[in-house]
Design goal:
Layout lengths: L5 E5 L5 H13 L9 H13 L3 E8 L5 E12 L2 E11 L8 H15 L5 E2 L7 H8 L18
Parallel strand pairs: 4-5
Antiparallel strand pairs: 1-2, 2-3, 3-4
Helix pairs in contact: 1-2
C-alpha cells in the first residue's frame, strides 16, 4: 500500500463475494490454517446478514477500491442497554501489520458510540495474534466471564 489511503463503509450485499474471498484468504493461512470452502463461507456471511440486528463494515483502499478487510457482527440486547457482538474481524494478509486494523477498529468504535452502543464483545483464540491485537486496542480479558461450548449430541 504505497501512499494510498483507506476508507470505511457499512457492508452492502454487493460486497459479498469479496468479503467471502478475503475471509477464506485470511483464515486459510497461518496461524489458523482452516479448511474453508466458498459455499461454507458464503452461507455463513449470508446467515449473518439475514439477522435483523446485523451490522457489518468493510475497509477499502482508495484509488483501487480493493477490499482490505471486513467486520461482521450484530447488535444484541443487554440488561444495561445494547452491545455489539463482533463475530468476525479480519484484514487481508498483505495488509496486516500496517495499522489498518487499528484504524478500522477505531472507525467501528466511533460508529457504535454514535449509535449509543457502548460495548463491543468478542471471542478469539488464546495465544493467537488476534488476542494481542485486541489487547493492544483497548480490549481486556473478562474476569467475570468464561466462554464454554458443548456438543448438542450428548
Amino acid at each position: 500500500m504505497k501512499n494510498k489511503g483507506i476508507y470505511f463503509v457499512e457492508f452492502n450485499e454487493s460486497d459479498l463475494s469479496e468479503v467471502v474471498n478475503v475471509y477464506i484468504e485470511v483464515f486459510s493461512a497461518e496461524p489458523w490454517n482452516d479448511k474453508l470452502t466458498d459455499n461454507q463461507i458464503t452461507s455463513y456471511v449470508n446467515q449473518m446478514t439475514e439477522l435483523n440486528t446485523f451490522k457489518g463494515y468493510i475497509v477499502r483502499e482508495e484509488g483501487t477500491a480493493n477490499l482490505l478487510g471486513a467486520a461482521l457482527g450484530f447488535i444484541k440486547p443487554w440488561y444495561m442497554g445494547k452491545e455489539y457482538q463482533l463475530d468476525s474481524f479480519y484484514i487481508s494478509n498483505d495488509y496486516q501489520g500496517k495499522g489498518i486494523g487499528t484504524k478500522f477498529l477505531n472507525f467501528i468504535k466511533g460508529q457504535l458510540k454514535d449509535s449509543c452502543i457502548p460495548t463491543i464483545i468478542l471471542d478469539t483464540d488464546r495465544g493467537y495474534p488476534a488476542e494481542l491485537f485486541y489487547l493492544n486496542n483497548g480490549f481486556e480479558h473478562s474476569n467475570s466471564s468464561v466462554i464454554l461450548h458443548g456438543d448438542t449430541s450428548s
